[in-house]
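User: I'm preparing a small set of examples for a lab meeting where we compare how different chains pack in three dimensions. I only have the primary sequence for this one, and I'd like the structure in token form so I can line it up with the others. Please keep the answer compact; I'll paste it straight into my notes.
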Amino acid sequence: MSTTTDQTGSLNAALAHTEHLLKVDPKLAAEQAREILKSAPACPPALLLLAAAHRLSGDLTRALQLIAPLIDAPPTWTAAHFEYALALAGVGRGDEAIQALRQTVKLKPDHLEAWRVLGDHLTATGDNKAADAAYTCHVRCSKRNRGIQAIGICAR
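Assistant: Understood. Below is the structure token output for the 156-residue chain.
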């Protein structure tokens, strides 16, 4: 195995470990992400994980600072748009969160969690018709993920 492959494998393993840590200890995940960034500066997946760790630890301002540049590079990175939406929602910027969620599902129409969160936000704004449509997409995506063919408004 070449050194480049070893480094890529090590980076992928470190990123996977950081992602796991997000679920159990976001502060430790932030430390791990910072360590990755020492050896791979400006690594977008590490920056995304660091932003998520800050959001989950309650430092929403720092999370937004880290994630905002990632939604444009590349602009089709669904995970960045979704994390951005969660951070925006966390600081009470609901309308912007809705736009980021809409961009998330535009990029990935079967993003189960984004449809649910979008439905929640639309419900909070009183847009029940749009919320119902988002929840319907959530259910359809859930069925699709279980292998049941779903058609309709969600594939737009």
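A couple of notes for your slides: The chain has eight helices and no strands. Residues 3-24 form the longest helix (22 residues).

User: Perfect, thanks.
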